[in-house]
Amino acid sequence: MEMPAHEFIARVLGKMLEAGHDGCVREGGLALRYDELPQALWTTFRDVLGIRDDDGTREVLQRAARWDAKNPRLEFTPDMERKRREADPALRSLVERWAGNAYRAIEAQRLAHPLRTHCLEP
Questions:
Q1: How confident is residue 114, by pLDDT bands cut at 50, 70 and 90?
Q2: What is the secondary structure of 16-80 as a DSSP string?
């Protein structure tokens, strides 16, 4: 029997978040919330990542951040809010079921260690 696409998406997201949380706990990993990017590279996490704090470095990072990582020929256009609006109630319910606990675990860790560990948002 084939798994419905929405359930597959929710389960994969849950496994990714579980692995991210495990990595942060086990290895002291650093994960960032999607909405913190790309600014976190030259602000909050600059020192943690060993990025120089100077105008030239910041300019290079900001220029690179203009482009879509999936298609570098296009300028990046934020679409997180649009995707959230388009997610139907069934998908939202499945994401809560399969990824909700892992997301909350990462978020709790992020809040407990705000400068060390941040998370991706489902």
A1: low
A2: HHHHHHHHHHHH---B--GGGTTGGGTTTTHHHHT---SHHHHHHHHHHHTB-SS-TTSB----H
